[in-house]
């Protein structure tokens, strides 16, 4: 068996750069999948933390890049595209754009936000596969894959729900979210297809496997040597090393990276083989000349941010793939979050539970509010909940502590010193105590940020402001002229320090305070511990930055995003009798141009003749599946135009758990439904 001829000449591998003294940081976020829009759990789980971390590194003067992108291959994408009536390429392009817009609104600053369907990722995936294959780390065997006879397709792991044989929890087919065990198809208990609910069967198919047991000694030694990893990640990874099994890396699909091996022309790589290679490809797409050095130099520290469900892939599978090449660096640290739930429930788009990033963008709160509040509720060490009360509490803290202190400092400076930084005299003991807090703050905050402890880092930054607030209240410069200059000089310097310390968390706040202080120099982390404002420096007029959130607002959002459906009001029999319900036969169906969900349906309604309706059934039915069905039709609904189609009524359907089915009837077209 030989390799299909694949041109790798475009994978130019530049010579390594000269040795450097300092480390540089290559930071990644788990790639968000394109099957849906992200929610707040995705944001705080793996996307916002690395943004905060990289902003901190750059303030400290480090060379750091942040790599991310959309994960686009696999059956889930094929199915989503099919439901939307578009090609996988069109679907991925659309979702990539929407994801990018969401993250940009939240001020997530990627060095490059790429795509796993890129040419670079296809080439690099085939290159890394070839390296592992040539070294004997990949072998072929017949294997069992889940196949749904009703859907007539092989199912991706996430489209098979079953009971875990180890802990009894409901799980996906490849890995249990509860106990973390990697699962083989034959081990699953009571599997079912999540698309149609039927029981899939295991079919034999020839596939390629990554021989993970061969990597076990190297993996165990490497994981054991990483003493700086969190105990949870390290222990989980070590436990996985004790029972490694070969891992299938190919699938019977069309949408994905083609396998460059004879006999495998009809297969693609399993999405979890090519997705992490996307980190490398996205780096290459960012910088054609330097990407290889970033991924091979011992001066690079590769740091992954991800959710706990991704620990096995980033501590075992991806490192094994990299080890097999004997070329790329391994992760320096893997920072894994637990799960964020919503008010005690799981986020669910189909049930309307929770807030998506799209929802958040439409609410009257700026990005800084979300960024700060989510950090306070971050699931760093255990699962946590987003609650609207918690959101309100976080913003109240910003308004009462940080915003109030900054605004008072500026207002008092304007009143007593004509908006000029006052010149301090000899510092008192109270002054020296606050100066000591200013000097220590950058170190305290940096210590927590370096470990990925974002919540504790934000609390450390806020402690400085609390100390300054207490100092301001104690000094009372509005009535004590003797302490006025020193007090406001130090308070303005605390404002400057806060603008630096909070920049990773709230970049808009930082920029606003910097503008109020009339500063144009670059922010530097170490400067947050220094008194650098010069006496006589003119500052600008300030306005309140944060606004507290009322209880009525919170109650409104709690209700809106709870997923609870309000019962509709009772109607009289006379009102019900006004409905003209008929049996109608579907004669013709076609897609509505420019609308993902709408179908144009022509009905035979017996004595009422033909009627046309526009119905949002495209995600649930193919046009040919509908022709000939006898359905229930509301004939006297006032007509209206939908995407250029005059819809003359409505056909009735039922919905539960995101499954929609038409109400069918055996009576002749035109028959009344009583």
What's the helix and strand layout?
Blueprint (H helix, E strand, L loop, with lengths): L23 E6 L10 H20 L3 E8 L4 H10 L3 H18 L6 E4 L3 H16 L3 E11 L4 E2 L5 E4 L6 E3 L16 E5 L7 E10 L5 H10 L5 H11 L5 E2 L1 E2 L16 E2 L1 H16 L4 H6 L3 E8 L3 H15 L7 E5 L2 E3 L14 H5 L5 H10 L7 E3 L1 H30 L11 H22 L3 H22 L5 H21 L5 H10 L34 H10 L12 H5 L3 E11 L7 E6 L5 E6 L7 H4 L3 E5 L5 E3 L2 E3 L2 E2 L1 E4 L2 E4 L12
Parallel strand pairs: 1-2, 1-13, 2-3, 13-14, 15-16
Antiparallel strand pairs: 4-5, 4-9, 6-7, 6-8, 9-10, 11-12, 17-18, 17-20, 18-19, 20-23, 21-22, 24-25
The percentage of residues in β strands lies in 15-25%
Q: Which CATH architecture of the largest domain would you pick?
A: 3-Layer(aba) Sandwich
End-to-end separation in angstroms reads 68 Å
| Structural class computed from helices and strand pairing | alpha+beta
Q: Provide the residue-averaged pLDDT.
A: 92
Helix content: 25-40%
The strand order across the widest sheet is 3-2-1-13-14
Strand elements, count: 25
Q: How would a textbook summarize the main sheet?
A: 5 strands, parallel
Number of separate structural domains: 3
Number of helices, counting only DSSP H or I runs of 4 residues or more: 19
**Estimated radius of gyration:** 30 Å
Shape verdict: globular
């Amino acid at each position: 068996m030989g390799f299909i001829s694949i041109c790798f000449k475009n994978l130019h591998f530049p010579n390594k750069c000269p040795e450097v003294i300092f480390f540089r940081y290559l930071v990644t976020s788990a790639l968000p999948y394109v099957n849906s829009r992200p929610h707040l759990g995705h944001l705080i789980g793996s996307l916002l933390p690395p943004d905060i971390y990289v902003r901190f590194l750059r303030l400290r003067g480090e060379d750091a890049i942040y790599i991310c992108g959309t994960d686009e291959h696999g059956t889930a994408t094929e199915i989503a595209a099919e439901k939307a009536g578009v090609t996988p390429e069109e679907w991925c392009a659309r979702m990539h754009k929407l994801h990018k817009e969401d993250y940009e609104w939240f001020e997530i600053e990627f060095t490059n936000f790429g795509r796993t369907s890129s040419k670079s990722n296809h080439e690099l995936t085939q290159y890394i596969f070839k390296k592992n294959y040539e070294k004997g780390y990949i072998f072929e065997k017949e294997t069992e894959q889940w196949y749904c006879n009703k859907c007539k397709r092989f199912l991706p792991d996430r489209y098979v729900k079953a009971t875990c044989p180890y802990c009894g929890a409901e799980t996906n087919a490849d890995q249990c979210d509860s106990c973390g065990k990697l699962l083989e198809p034959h081990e699953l208990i009571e599997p079912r297809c999540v698309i149609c609910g039927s029981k899939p069967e295991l079919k034999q198919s020839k596939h390629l496997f990554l021989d993970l047991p061969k990597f076990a000694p190297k993996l165990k030694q490497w994981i054991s040597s990483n003493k700086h990893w969190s105990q949870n990640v390290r222990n989980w990874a070590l436990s996985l090393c004790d029972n490694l099994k070969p891992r299938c890396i190919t699938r019977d699909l069309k949408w994905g990276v083609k396998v460059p091996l004879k006999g495998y022309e009809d297969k693609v790589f399993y999405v979890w083989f090519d997705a992490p290679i996307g980190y490398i490809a996205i780096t290459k797409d960012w910088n054609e000349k330097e990407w290889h050095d970033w991924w091979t130099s011992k001066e690079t520290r590769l740091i992954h941010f991800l959710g706990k469900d991704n620990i096995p892939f980033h501590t075992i599978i991806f490192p094994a793939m990299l080890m097999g090449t004997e070329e790329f660096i391994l992760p320096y640290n893997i920072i894994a979050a637990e799960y964020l739930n919503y008010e005690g429930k799981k986020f669910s788009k189909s049930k309307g539970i929770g807030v998506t990033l799209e929802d958040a963008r439409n609410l009257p709160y700026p990005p800084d509010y979300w960024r700060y509040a989510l950090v306070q509720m971050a699931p760093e060490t255990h699962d946590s909940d987003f609650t609207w009360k918690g959101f309100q509490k976080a913003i109240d803290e910003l308004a009462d502590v940080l915003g109030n202190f900054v605004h008072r400092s500026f207002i008092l400076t304007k009143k007593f010193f004509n908006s000029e930084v006052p010149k301090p005299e000899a510092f008192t003991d109270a002054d020296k105590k606050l100066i000591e807090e200013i000097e220590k703050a950058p170190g305290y905050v940096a210590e927590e940020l370096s470990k990925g402890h974002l919540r504790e880092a934000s609390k450390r930054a806020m402690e400085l402001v609390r100390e300054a607030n207490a100092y301001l209240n104690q000094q009372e410069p509005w009535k004590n002229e003797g302490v006025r200059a020193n007090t406001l000089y130090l308070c303005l310097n605390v404002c400057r320090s806060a603008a630096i310390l909070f920049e990773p968390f709230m970049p808009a706040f930082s920029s606003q305070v910097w503008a109020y202080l009339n500063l144009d120099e670059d922010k530097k982390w170490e400067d947050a511990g220094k008194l650098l404002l010069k006496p006589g420096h003119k500052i600008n007029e300030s306005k309140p930055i944060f606004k507290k959130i009322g209880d009525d607002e919170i109650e409104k959002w709690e209700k809106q995003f709870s997923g609870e459906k309000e019962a509709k009001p009772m109607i009289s029999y006379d009102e019900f009798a006004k409905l003209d319900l008929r049996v109608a036969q579907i004669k013709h169906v076609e897609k509505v141009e420019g609308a993902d969900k709408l179908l144009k349906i022509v009905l035979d309604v017996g004595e009422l003749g033909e009627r046309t309706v526009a119905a949002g059934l495209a995600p649930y039915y193919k046009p040919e599946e509908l022709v000939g069905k006898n359905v229930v039709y509301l004939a006297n609904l006032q007509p209206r135009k939908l995407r250029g189609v005059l819809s003359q009524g409505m056909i009735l359907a039922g919905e539960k758990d995101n499954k929609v089915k038409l109400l069918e009837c055996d009576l002749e077209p035109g028959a009344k439904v009583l």
